């Protein structure tokens, strides 16, 4: 068996051409492809990171910008642990579309999903159309857990972004685990095996599946 | 004669001379059946009439060549006027001076600026994708080519309001332009080389019309429109028509409830694409390869995860360009049209089943999303055809050893392979082969079974579907015994991909050089110097089309590696390290590996223990 403690699904969404695929490739393979074809449908990458002493496996789903295709994206949304919504700081329209994306997320994603807003392409400082402050305000006003500006080109904050995702998810999961164990030991003391217990166990298995 | 000499040297590698191709094309007895066979046999692969044959197959042109001129004329005019009509700029609209109306800030519906802004948005969307069409191919990076693609897609989108532009269409258009352009180029070349002097005036005129480079854009549009007529159903989303169905969940449960094994996660087919993918998966794959179907199902890998791209781009990312064109030859020629696509889909799955069956969720997905390069496209197509009509097409030999799982299409190490090596290094080859296949409920039992036996679990679960003896599945072999073979395969794979790449680059380069050599006459100056220069350029061009690997060396590879397997490994190692040092090969008979119809088949028996 692969020795990782948790497996998390991270889904990237956002308008076409904001650099989702480049972010993922920079993070997983360490390269910035000079030419990157448009994603059709969805793409998939994995990378293992370390949070403290634990190995955390990230399963990264990279969706096509034009794909608001319920039957495809819905299942990704639902099973995602974290959703990274990306816009291009040098492209106002990609920022203007954020409310639409947010609507999709609210409609289809898990309520407890970790929501992260990312303004990409900060290397294009001269062409910037969306100031950092505006992005930050939007993130705060709309319940995002984290906001960050990145550049896949010069690697600014790329590792930070995914590391942060992994750390936050791990901490959340550990909390849940602790609660689960406390709960379980209480149960055992009573000598009962509850249905909830089994359900939780099974839910955990589902999360561990690679 | 100097020119003729060059001509023959240059054309040596090509299986069919241009004249013969033209005669085939102009033969009044030509029919669908003959065309089909021509395509399936791979005779378009190095031909110069592919664009014409495609136009016939796409019904842009009738099969009778006598009607071509007129029809071409009509379709070119059609595009010309359409484009003109659609690309109006309100700034240049001299007939509409009314400031109430023709004013960027006017809110009136007839305001031409409204349309202008909408169009600009569409353009923007198209250009974003056009700029990243096949980024590894220089051909698509020129300003001129991008403009052309953008215009064609724009006109198409305006003409098909409801669908408009969808990501992926640009990569349907790209191969069409590629094929047209290169046919134009080679025709111009033949013409200059007086390679068509044997033809009648009438025939020459017709060829001139067909291969008129001024109408590259027009003709590409016509082909694209026809092809999209077949493919558009895969681009339509039900969401496009505002059919927001809020009661999906209960509805789908009702509908699916009666169908066993149907993924309850799926909210029921709601677009033709999804329906198609489900049909391919749940009907065809289930029947053709039940074990694989069960495996993918148990991992909950639905076909839309990987298949949307496969279908929308007609496998454009799963095969390198030169193989893709051959694949499209077959797809377009086959009747009823597009049915072959389903079988190609299945063939792609079945041919990497040995990789999929012993892989976990992530590894499977990596293989499906970064499909391993096909070694021999001809065998692959034969196998697809065989799946479709087993009686008409025999099963090709050695079809199973047809993929290189260690590398990606781009020739880089495959992520799965990298990972496997990392792990092997990590575990120091002590752990049993990793097999994780079970679904949630059986997860625990599965793990216990795995730790108890090193045999892949899939075999225990589905004993009927996995023949124990005479099987070629790699899962049957202990992994360590396979490492030598893996090594060898890797070497061969790298070599092959490098060869293919060089081959293509060299041939394009040589074609360009020859064209340049012919243009030297146009320059003024010393005739003798010119002749010398020409000769030199031609020589370089000829050398370019020769092999990078010694022909003699290739012939020395035993086709049957029988007694001592290690020899083969050594051979492959040598090949991987020093193919370019065999410079003496340059003077040999120029013949390409690929043109000889594919990679040499190396037969080896993976069961043999001395490997």
TrEMBL record, chain A:
Pfam families: Ras. Its cofactor is Mg(2+). Its EC number is 3.6.5.2. PANTHER family: RAS-RELATED PROTEIN RAB (PTHR47977). The keyword Thylakoid does not apply. It is a lipid-anchor. Belongs to the small GTPase superfamily. Rab family. Gene3D superfamilies: P-loop containing nucleotide triphosphate hydrolases (3.40.50.300). GO terms for cellular component: autophagosome membrane; cytoplasmic vesicle; Golgi apparatus; lysosome. It is found in: Cytoplasmic vesicle, Autophagosome membrane; Golgi apparatus, cis-Golgi network; Golgi apparatus, trans-Golgi network membrane; Lysosome. The keyword Magnesium applies. This is Ras-related protein Rab-30. One of its GO terms (molecular function) is GTP binding. Its main location: membrane. Keywords: Cytoplasm, Cytoplasmic vesicle, Golgi apparatus, GTP-binding, Hydrolase, Lipoprotein, Lysosome, Magnesium, Membrane, Metal-binding, Methylation, Nucleotide-binding, Prenylation. The small GTPases Rab are key regulators of intracellular membrane trafficking, from the formation of transport vesicles to their fusion with membranes. Rabs cycle between an inactive GDP-bound form and an active GTP-bound form that is able to recruit to membranes different sets of downstream effectors directly responsible for vesicle formation, movement, tethering and fusion. RAB30 is required for maintaining the structural integrity of the Golgi apparatus, possibly by mediating interactions with cytoplasmic scaffolding proteins.
UniProtKB/TrEMBL annotation, chain B:
The keyword Amino-acid biosynthesis does not apply. Keywords: GTPase activation. GO terms for cellular component: cytoplasm. The keyword Translocase does not apply. Pfam families: RabGAP-TBC. SMART domains: TBC (SM00164). Signal peptide: none annotated. PROSITE patterns: TBC_RABGAP. One of its GO terms (molecular function) is GTPase activator activity. Residues 44-335 form the Rab-GAP TBC domain. This is Rab-GAP TBC domain-containing protein.
């Amino acid at each position: 068996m692969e020795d990782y403690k948790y497996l998390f699904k991270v889904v990237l969404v956002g308008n076409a051409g904001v650099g989702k695929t480049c972010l993922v490739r920079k993070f997983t393979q360490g390269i910035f492809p000079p030419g990157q074809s448009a994603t059709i449908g969805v793409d998939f990458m994995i990378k293992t990171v370390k949070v403290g002493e634990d190995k955390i496996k990230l399963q990264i789903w990279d969706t096509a910008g034009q794909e608001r295709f319920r039957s495809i994206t819905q299942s990704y949304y639902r099973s995602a642990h974290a959703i990274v919504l990306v816009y291009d700081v040098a492209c106002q329209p990609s920022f203007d579309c954020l409310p639409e994306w947010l609507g999709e997320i609210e409609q289809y994603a898990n309520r407890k999903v970790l929501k992260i807003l990312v303004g990409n392409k900060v290397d294009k400082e001269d062409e910037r159309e969306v100031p950092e402050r505006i992005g930050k305000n939007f993130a705060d006003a709309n319940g995002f857990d984290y906001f960050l500006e990145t550049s896949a080109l010069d690697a600014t904050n790329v590792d930070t972004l995914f590391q942060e995702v992994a750390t936050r998810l791990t901490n959340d999961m550990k909390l849940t685990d602790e609660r689960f164990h406390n709960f379980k030991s209480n149960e055992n003391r009573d000598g009962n095996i509850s249905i909830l217990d089994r359900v939780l166990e099974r839910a955990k298995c589902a999360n561990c599946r690679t | 004669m100097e020119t003729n000499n060059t001509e023959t040297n240059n054309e040596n590698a090509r299986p069919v001379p241009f004249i013969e191709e033209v005669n085939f094309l102009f033969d009044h007895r030509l029919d669908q059946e003959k065309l089909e066979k021509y395509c399936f046999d791979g005779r378009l692969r190095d031909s110069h009439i592919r664009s014409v044959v495609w136009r016939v197959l796409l019904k842009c042109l009738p099969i009778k060549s006598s009607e071509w001129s007129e029809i071409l004329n009509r379709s070119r005019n059609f595009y010309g006027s359409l484009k003109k009509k659609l690309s109006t700029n309100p700034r240049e609209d001299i007939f509409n001076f009314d400031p109430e109306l023709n004013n960027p800030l006017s809110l009136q519906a007839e305001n031409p600026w409204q349309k202008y802004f909408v169009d600009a948005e569409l353009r923007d969307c198209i250009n974003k994708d056009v700029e990243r069409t096949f980024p590894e191919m220089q051909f698509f990076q020129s300003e001129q080519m991008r403009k052309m693609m953008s215009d064609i897609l724009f006109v198409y989108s305006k003409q098909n309001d409801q669908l408009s532009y969808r990501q992926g269409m640009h990569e349907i258009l790209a191969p069409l332009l590629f094929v047209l352009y290169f046919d134009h180029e080679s025709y111009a070349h033949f013409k200059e080389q007086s390679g068509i002097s044997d033809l009648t005036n009438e025939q020459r005129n017709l060829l001139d019309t067909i291969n008129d480079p001024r109408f590259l854009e027009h003709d590409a549009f016509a082909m694209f429109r026809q092809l999209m007529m077949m493919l558009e159903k895969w681009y339509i989303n039900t969401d496009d028509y505002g059919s927001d169905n809020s009661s999906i969940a209960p509805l789908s449960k009702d509908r699916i409830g009666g169908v066993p094994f149907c993924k309850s996660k799926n909210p029921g087919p709601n677009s033709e694409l999804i329906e198609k993918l489900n049909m391919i998966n749940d009907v065809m794959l289930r029947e053709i390869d039940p074990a694989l179907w069960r495996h993918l199902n148990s991992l909950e890998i639905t076909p839309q995860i990987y298949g949307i791209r496969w279908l929308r781009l007609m496998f454009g990312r799963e095969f390198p360009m030169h193989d893709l064109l051959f694949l499209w030859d077959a797809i377009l020629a086959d009747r009823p049209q597009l049915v072959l696509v389903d079988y190609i889909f299945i063939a792609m799955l079945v041919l990497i089943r040995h990789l999929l069956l012993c892989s976990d969720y992530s590894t499977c997905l990596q293989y499906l999303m970064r499909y391993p390069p096909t070694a021999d496209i001809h065998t692959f197509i034969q196998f697809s055809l065989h799946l479709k009509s087993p009686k008409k097409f025999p099963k090709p030999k050695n079809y199973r050893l047809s993929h290189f799982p260690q590398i990606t299409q781009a020739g880089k190490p495959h992520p799965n392979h990298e990972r496997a090596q990392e792990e092997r290094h990590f575990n120091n080859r002590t752990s049993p082969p990793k097999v994780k296949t079970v679904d949630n409920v059986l997860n625990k039992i599965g793990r216990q079974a795995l730790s108890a036996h090193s045999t892949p679990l899939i075999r225990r679960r589905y004993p009927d579907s996995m023949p124990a003896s005479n099987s070629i599945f790699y899962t049957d072999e202990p992994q360590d015994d396979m490492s030598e073979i893996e090594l060898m395969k890797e070497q061969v794979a790298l070599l092959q991909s490098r060869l293919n790449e060089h081959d293509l680059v060299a041939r394009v380069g040589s074609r360009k050089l020859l064209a340049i050599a012919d243009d030297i006459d146009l320059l003024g100056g010393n005739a003798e110097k010119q002749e010398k220069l020409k000769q030199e350029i031609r020589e370089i061009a000829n050398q370019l089309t020769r092999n990078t690997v010694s022909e003699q060396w290739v012939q020395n590879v035993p086709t049957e590696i029988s007694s001592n397997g290690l020899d083969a490994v050594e051979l492959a190692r040598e090949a991987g390290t020093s193919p370019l040092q065999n410079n003496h090969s340059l003077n040999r008979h120029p013949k390409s590996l690929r043109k000889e119809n594919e990679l040499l088949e190396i037969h080896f028996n993976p069961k043999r223990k001395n490997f």
